Amino acid sequence: MITSLRVPELFAHFTSDSVLRLDPARIAYGTITGIGFLGAGAIVRDKQRTRGITTAACLWVVAAIGLAIGCGFYSLGVASTVISILVLYFLRMVEKFIPKDIYHTILITRDGEKEMAPLLQVLDEFQMKILSQAIKIQTPPPMTEVEFSVRHKNHTAAETVVRRFMSVPGVKMVEWK
Question: Are 37 and 60 in contact, with CB atoms under 8 Å apart?
Fold first, then answer.
């Protein structure tokens, strides 16, 4: 940024009529773009969640603070640093009170080819959202395997959910992953 600010005085012999155009903000643009790409690389998304958003935002804030200090805006840079640290600290404290999503896979083996309604009702009781499901029917003997990928905020013990599934008629096995 300091180099960027010195460009006009270093190349003062280039006038507005010359072919070469000097833009002191070009280095700042490049920095912001480059940090944007780094931030995008810090964000990781899988089937169930997205992680790294705070890291990406912090990279951008740090780059902005660096540019401000490079321009000579020391008080702005220090104030931004203090505010950023305070915000991150207090957000971490607030985050503890926000229930987090929990992800599980539930594999249920049942006798015969039965309706899905009783299983869906159990998921509904525990406020579980189905992200994906797979059904496998095999014969003989007639047996159905159902696999649910679920998301929920309920921190109920797995044992309670498994017991409830086992109480559904025809369920022979429940696997909680």
Answer: no
Residue 83 has a pLDDT of 96
Q: DSSP 3-state assignment of 154?
A: coil
Q: Which residues of the chain have pLDDT under 50?
A: none
In angstroms and rounded to an integer, the radius of gyration of the C-alpha atoms of the chain is 28
**According to DSSP H, which parts of the chain are helical?**
2-10, 26-42, 53-70, 74-95, 117-125, 158-166
pTM over 0.70, yes/no: no
| Composition of the chain by helix, strand, coil, percent to 5 | 45, 25, 30
- What residue ranges define each of the domains in the chain, with the CATH number in brackets? 2-95 (no CATH), 102-176 (3.30.70.260)
Reading the block at residue 38, the tokens are 């780094």
